[in-house]
Q: What sequence folds into this?
């Protein structure tokens, strides 16, 4: 009920949700289904009808023709549209999350500094990518039932993190707090991500599965924004993110520089590398070339942050509603005008009268 009320009261949420359905279901997914289920079977029937006298020749010709058509369709239509839809979807997902958050909770709360925001985002992308690899490795276990159950558990936790991360990021939660909250309340998040994990695993095609995810994910973003997770339902945490956090810390220490970081926390691994991360990037506004997730981050920054990035005097020279933003960058005072000092004129002494 609250999902429908949020969509109806916020026109931008409804608009972006319909656009996601139209792009991923009406254009991308429908074109793949028409090619595979209508065009290829029709051409196969016509070709076998033409080579009715020699069925073996018709089958061999159809084998080469179907391979060429599938490769051409995949290279010139499926792959470019898939990459374009990923970038556009990331922007639309961010708009849906921000609009729903403003409608229900007010103005988003950013992290204390731009460098910390960039570092948290990069570290979060690395952790999620490694966690996806961990789920694929678990699915290769020789015990079929156990591997399927563990792989499903990983996908449910990952999809729940995807959906709730927009709200937690707008609330100012750092990565270690987000992961700890999921691990401590894993039964709730396992059930939350279960429908999306099951529905995306049904299609045999990877691209159709991506279309199903992109169509349903806006609803999960709105649900995560409005939901109040049940806490305290489990006595023990399920530390599935611990291995990927350790690997991420090791990669950061080797690529950026050896820094001392306390064990078990993510914020301690992020803090030493803030200045190195920002200095290694050519420009904070060029993050869209790194990942589609980052391209959704930069347009969501408020105007005072974007203007502060390009302002030569730093964040203190821009009117910011938060004192923490201006405290993170030292203020560079403009040079004082130099006054030219002229010598003081001496008074002319009148000559003494002669007696």
A:
């Amino acid at each position: 009920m609250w999902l429908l009320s949020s969509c109806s009261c916020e026109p931008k949420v409804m608009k972006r949700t319909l656009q996601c359905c139209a792009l991923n279901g009406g254009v991308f997914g429908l074109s793949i289904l028409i090619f595979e289920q209508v065009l290829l079977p029709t051409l196969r029937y016509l070709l076998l009808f033409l080579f009715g006298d020699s069925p073996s020749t018709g089958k061999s010709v159809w084998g080469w023709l179907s391979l060429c058509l599938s490769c051409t369709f995949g290279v010139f239509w499926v792959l470019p549209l898939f990459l374009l839809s990923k970038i556009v979807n990331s922007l639309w997902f961010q708009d849906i999350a921000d609009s729903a958050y403003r409608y229900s909770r007010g103005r988003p709360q950013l992290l204390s500094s731009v460098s910390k925001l960039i570092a948290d985002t990069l570290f979060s992308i690395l952790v999620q990518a490694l966690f996806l690899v961990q789920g694929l490795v678990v699915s290769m276990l020789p015990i079929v039932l156990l591997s399927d159950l563990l792989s499903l558990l990983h996908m449910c936790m990952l999809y729940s993190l995807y959906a709730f991360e927009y709200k937690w990021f707008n609330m100012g939660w750092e990565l270690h707090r987000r992961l700890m909250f999921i691990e401590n309340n894993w039964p709730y998040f396992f059930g939350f991500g279960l429908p999306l994990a099951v529905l995306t695993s049904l299609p045999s095609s990877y691209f159709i599965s991506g279309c199903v995810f992109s169509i349903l994910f806006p609803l999960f973003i709105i649900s995560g924004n409005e939901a109040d997770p049940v806490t305290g339902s489990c006595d023990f945490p399920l530390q599935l993110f611990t291995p990927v956090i350790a690997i991420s810390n090791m990669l950061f220490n080797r690529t950026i520089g050896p820094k001392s970081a306390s064990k078990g926390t993510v914020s301690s691994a992020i803090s030493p590398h803030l200045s190195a991360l920002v200095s290694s990037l050519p420009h904070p506004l060029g993050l869209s070339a790194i990942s589609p997730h980052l391209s959704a981050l930069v347009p969501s920054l408020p105007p005072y942050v974007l203007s502060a990035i390009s302002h030569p005097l730093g964040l203190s020279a821009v009117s910011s509603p938060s004192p923490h933003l201006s405290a993170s960058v030292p203020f560079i005072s403009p040079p004082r005008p130099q006054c030219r000092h002229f010598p003081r004129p001496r008074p002319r002494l009148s000559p003494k009268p002669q007696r």
Q: What stands out?
A: Confidence is low (pLDDT under 50) at residues 259-337, 339-347. The first helix runs from residue 2 to 9. The radius of gyration is 29 Å.
